[in-house]
Structures
1.
Amino acid sequence: PDSAKVLYERGLQLDAHSADLLFRLGCVLSQEGNDSAAVAKFQSAILSDPTYDEAYVRLARYYALQRDTAQALRILETEIEHTTPSPEALSLRHQLSGRSSEARPPALLHN
């Protein structure tokens, strides 16, 4: 059987702007440790659908784990401009607010 990655890539051949497929492929790439490719897919998902909440959250988490709290917060602020943020996004924003760029929120490590 084909892997999820192969199936998402095939789906994107049919619909290159599918935010859901871009996001899901980004998740697979992230699990494989290919962070730069995953970030690019999350960004593409957001460009394809600026209301795609999960892509903002995953992208913000990535930057938070890289200790770039300012960039993570900018992503979450952009989300607020385009959509009603999910409880998860609001929780992440709350965790990151007021932290220095050196902070690494423990709750982020498990998702």
2.
Amino acid sequence: EILWESRGFFLTFPIPFTVYTLTRERILLKRGIIKTNYDETRLYRVNDIKLSQNLIQKFCDTYTITLYTRDKAEASLLIKNVKQGHKVKELISNLVEESRRRNRVINAEF
């Protein structure tokens, strides 16, 4: 079940070759024109979430969401130029906690 899906944006124009998809268990990224890459991160592996906005993004009302994960191959995952960044960050945060409970994963900070 897809809970959120968006294309990346450049200024205010959607980028057709970047697609972000969020389900209850995973975040999926599809990138590329000629060569398409598919990246998948299970939500229970997310340790921290950061929301940021540079000057150009402020004019376009978009944000970058950075997910810091336990994945050695992809230690951080950038979701760039997202509309309604605060709302999407909260959705991801809630789904991460829900996924941890479902999978009985404890996020110990040392």
3.
Amino acid sequence: RAFRRQRHGIQRGVDVDLPPANAQPMPADDDVSVLSITKDQKVFLGEAEIPFEELETKIRLNQKLQSEKELYLHADRNLPYGIVVDVMATLKNAGIENLGMVTDPLADTDD
């Protein structure tokens, strides 16, 4: 069940170059929680920046996330793979059971 959803093009205040995808967009839902990782490796929950070393604690203390156990990851496509994996592992350790990936359905997938 964990880490399998895909969501396209969530517009937030954090600038992220999304990876492309060939899936259909999900309906917009402004109530979803989104964690963004920018190309300069800054982490944001919504629009609030969180230092990586505080991420697990902040997620554990977030009542909404602990109740829903769901979060969407909005990671810049140019990030090193290891950074994204580290964040995903931290989220799992913090109690997130369902992690969706945000992608860009309109991008050229031939890069």
4.
Amino acid sequence: DYGLCDDGVVKEFERGGAPDGFIFAFDYLYGKVKKIADKRGLMLGKDYDAVGYGDTPWAEIYGIPTMDPMIELMSEKVAEALDSGRNMTIEIKPVLKVPAIELRSAIREAS
């Protein structure tokens, strides 16, 4: 059971609810959930999962995977479309970035 993390999901988690994971609209929002999880003795990656969005320094600080919205690439594609004067469909796929610690653990477990 995964939920887009909003105040309702955080409050439910605080009351003892236990979703399998959280999807954050911004990396820094993980701080609220981490504080509650720490109080409850829950561990990221063991008791619940989390994915942030924005590829910000907060994701690295918290050690959570984050989706890179590819803003530079998106800006380039929009500029190309505007310069061409044609209607264009632009498809940008965000990239999931996984913290190095998680990657090392996964590689060790697979060996």
